[in-house]
Amino acid sequence: MSKACDVLIVGAGIAGLTLALELHAAGITCQVYEAAPELKPLGVGINVLPHAVCVLDRLGLRDRLAAVAVTTKESAYFNHHGQLIYREPAGVAAGYAWPQFSIHRGDLHEVLLQAVRERLGTDAVVTDRRCTDARNEGDLASTRFVDSAGAPHDVTASVVVACDGIHSALRKQFYPDEGAPRYSGNNMWRGAVKWAPFLSGATMVRAGWFTVGKMVIYPIRDAVDADGNQLVNWVAEIARPQPARRDWTGRGRVEDVLPTFADWRFDWLDVAGLIESTTEILEYPMVDQDPLPRWTFDRLTLLGDAAHPMVPRGSNGAGQAILDASFIAEQFKQRGVGPEALVAYEQVRLKATSDVVLMNRKAPPDKILQVVHERTNGARFERIEDVVGKDELADIVNQYKAVAGYALDQLNVAR
Ligand SMILES: Cc1cc2nc3c(=O)[nH]c(=O)nc-3n(C[C@H](O)[C@H](O)[C@H](O)COP(=O)(O)OP(=O)(O)OC[C@H]3O[C@@H](n4cnc5c(N)ncnc54)[C@H](O)[C@@H]3O)c2cc1C
């Protein structure tokens, strides 16, 4: 059996493409196999925080990302009456050596894909190959793919890294009895719409609370027309007993979302107007999975969402996938491409990301909203200082940053 490359990457998403770039930089051969027949710029907004931008900067992508993203200046928290609870600077404005980017997932994906094609060649990503299973065969790992006509294709490499996202085929192979995804009790609707800059023009807003309607809003593209409008991303999150379908093509309806936010017309942003003006809405349940006991099975391993899907309450899904990619490439450099490197990768990244998965459930940054909502019983406040001190709010965010690996002092010193 002859091998195609050192590392076979399953899935050309954010994790798979970042890993391909990291491996190329390390002089390790790889190929990426992707199920979609064509790679399209899908999704809506994503935040890439300084720890992940640090990795992308080392890969030489910082300027390309800055050209298409919004460089986030601050993070702000409001209650559902539109009253300001807390704000703090973000990225470079907060003293980090790297910015925070608020970006369309399609733009992030496109920057990565272009870099892969330029550096590894146009045939580095093979599309229309859906992975069905993989197995260890002596000194090699063999993977079966099926194309859209149903034809099988077997590919062999030294190791296989499954970056095939939240529906990972290899995760199912390793854990056939894993239950259905764990629904958080909150459904999400996402949209993006042209809108005039609001607040600083680069503010990430979190507002409300799940039980009365919560919103995450931030611009993801600057100057999208001659009037200087931005593309503004919004995510409505509402407590619902039943989850929606779990894929990125589920279409939502304005009438499912608008009633909850109908009176959200604040002096800093007309949230209801934003929703009313959105033509395409995606619906997606807020789900994750319990952390796994292991990812690595000899020459096969999991990475990114395949390994640790998390509820999107801390802007860390893409970031942790990028950190995984960087870390595993470093292990291959140090230990060679084989099982030892995969074990070393798992030893560090499984614990680190499990902590983020659990923290996202219990105490992500939006816990600030919960604290204020519960202490005020959802009513307006006179002075926020009478409800909660600034230090208590800063502690919530800082504890999250430490667990997720982007506390200011850790990151600026460590890199
Ligand atoms: C179409 C799409 C849109 C998204 N939109 C958003 C968004 O708007 N906001 C947000 O926060 N997150 C979004 N996400 C999720 C986000 O990209 C991830 O949470 C995060 O970036 C981690 O990346 P990942 O590479 O691990 O997974 P993903 O980015 O999900 O990438 C997984 C890749 O593997 C491919 N794949 C899946 N199964 C197989 C298989 N059996 N064989 C081969 N390839 C396979 C998928 O087609 C995909 O390209 C989206 C994901 C997808 C796939």
Automatic annotation (TrEMBL):
InterPro entries: FAD-bd, FAD-dep_Monooxygenase_BioMet, FAD/NAD-bd_sf
Keywords: Monooxygenase, Oxidoreductase
Top-rank lineage group of the source organism: Bacteria
Domain FAD-binding, chain residue ranges per copy: 5-174
NCBIfam families: PRK07538.1 (NF005720)
PANTHER family: 5-METHYLPHENAZINE-1-CARBOXYLATE 1-MONOOXYGENASE, MONOOXYGENASE
Protein known as: Flavin-dependent oxidoreductase
Organism whose genome encodes this protein: Rhodanobacter lycopersici
Lineage per the UniProt record: Bacteria, Pseudomonadati, Pseudomonadota, Gammaproteobacteria, Lysobacterales
